[in-house]
Amino acid sequence: MASYDTAKIDAILAKNEYAEANLLAILQDIQAAEGYLPRPALEHVAKSLGISIARIYSMATFYKAFSLKPRGKHICTVCMGTACHVRGAGRILDKIEENLKIKAGETTKDLLFTVERVNCVGACAMGPVVIMDGETIGNATANKINKVINDIKADSKKS
Amino acid sequence: MTEAKVNNAPMVEFIVDGKKCSAPRESSLLDFLLANGYDIPYLCHNPAVKPYGACRLCLVEVKNGRKTKLTTSCNYPILEGIEVFTNTEKVRRNRKMVMELLLARAPESKELRQMAKDRFGIDADKLPFEKNNGNKCILCGLCVRVCRELVGIEALSFAGRGEHKEAISPFHDVASTCIGCGACAVACPTNCIGLDQVITKRSLARWNRELPMKTCKRCGYAYAPMFQLEHFQNISSVPADFFDLCPDCRK
After folding, report:
1. B170 close contact with A: CB closer than 8 A
2. What is the least distance, in Å, from the CA of B46 to any CA of chain A?
3. DSSP H/E element including A61
4. Does B160 contact chain A (CB < 8 Å)?
5. Would you say the C-alpha torsion A119, A123, A127, A130 has a positive or negative sign?
6. Complex confidence, ipTM
7. Alpha-carbon gap, residue A128 to B173, rounded angstroms
8. Chain B residues in contact with A52 (beta carbon < 8 A)
9. CB-based contact A54 B154, cutoff 8 Å
10. Which residue is closest to B152 within chain A, CA to CA?
11. Does a structural domain hold residue B206?
């Protein structure tokens, strides 16, 4: 814990005026900077603001936008809303899980991919929908998505 | 609603089950009903902390103006001219359903089963849901609220939301700031904290916390957790050796 670099967190705290009222914004900034909420960072925030770690944990687990586990470099979000579901989103998710050997909500060991499921992204007309790093892929098929995933895999091996 | 505010509040008149009553404006309806002998079931209420309205068992019907609605009485502020019905068919039916839902969430709580049987004639074994889901907690929040509002430590909190919500220590780990006072276990209506004490060690299973007890210098009785005494020391101005003796030997 002592080895954790707190300078970055201190900068975020300073930006948010060390105010408890800004806790949500502080967590958002940490999430954006680190890709997740590391436990030592949260403990540092609790100590710096003089509030209980329980309160921070409560907030961090309440919002879906926060993750307490490291997330992958590439986020693959599969829409499981009704429209996508009836068009076979389940099968697409199965194939992605099979390809990456993880379950929805998990991250690959090499921290390259995180797979998530959400219930409706509001693009029902082009379902089934998969969002890859913020880019919406409509009329998705398992092959189409796995090709994108495999391309990213190949790219990361090259570099 | 703070106590001071209620104390200064003007008295208002209202009706409970056809009887004229009066109470301070905006005081808790449930507190009034309990103090006046009305037999209202409840689990999440404790006058020491703010009303929370989590268990939904204290349902009553309240007529305010032309509208009658079903509402929890614990967090319903008494207002001038309201008419309260504590035992209508609708109230009984809904309380029973609430009880069944609570049982479905925490079927392993003996206290809950007993209450369901005694008060509502519900046999938990005959209900069509899983009986062994390992859960005794009904998410009434008394442990969390007592720790935050009374003890002032906030060692635990709710985590997650929706079906994943639970009252738990941070990171499901040891509740490292817990002083072991046991207030949560006393407040818990379903006995799911797991407070235990073996001679000089107290444990709170739900929070993964184990604490050494302070033994009285004179009689040798392990009378309170050390962390609790340290906390008291910090927030009070008693001499450093004040807690060397247990309350009995201190007299």
Report:
1. yes
2. 22
3. helix A53-62
4. yes
5. negative
6. 0.87
7. 39
8. 148, 153-155, 157, 177
9. yes
10. A52
11. yes
Q: Residue A42: which of A31, A29, A55, A53 has the closest Cα?
A: A53
Domain that holds residue B49: 3-90
**Residue in B154, B160, B171 closest to A55 by CB:** B154
CATH of A74-158, one of 3.75.10.10, 3.40.50.1820, 3.40.30.10, 3.30.565.10: 3.40.30.10
**Interchain CB distance below 8 Å, A52 and B153:** yes
Residue with tokens 């379902």: A127
Q: What is the least distance, in Å, from the CA of B88 to any CA of chain A?
A: 38
Pick the residue from chain A with its C-alpha nearest to B158. Answer: A58
Based on its alpha-carbon atoms, the radius of gyration of chain A, rounded to whole angstroms, reads: 18
**Which amino acid does the sequence have at A81?**
G
Q: Could you tell me if A54 lies within 8 Å of chain B, comparing CB atoms?
A: yes
Is pLDDT at A2 greater than 60 in this prediction?
no
Q: Is residue B105 part of a domain?
A: no
| Domain-located, residue B100 | no
Q: How far, in Å, CA of A114 to CA of A131, rounded?
A: 12
Residue A127, pLDDT score: 83
* Angle (CA) A99 A94 A140, round 5°: 90
A52/B175 touch (CB, cutoff 8 Å), yes or no: no
Share of chain A above pLDDT 70, in %: 97
Task: Label residue A106 exposed, middle or buried (CB < 10 Å: 0-12, 13-18, 19+).
Answer: middle
B154-199 pLDDT, tens digit each: 999 999 999 899 999 999 999 999 999 999 999 999 999 999 998 8
* B156: nearest Cα among B224, B198, B205: B205
Listed by number, the residues of chain A in 4-23 with a beta carbon closer than 8 Å to a beta carbon of chain B are none
DSSP letters along B80-145, please?
Answer: TT-EEESS-HHHHHHHHHHHHHHHHH-TT-HHHHHHHHHHH---GGGSSS-S-SS-------HHHH
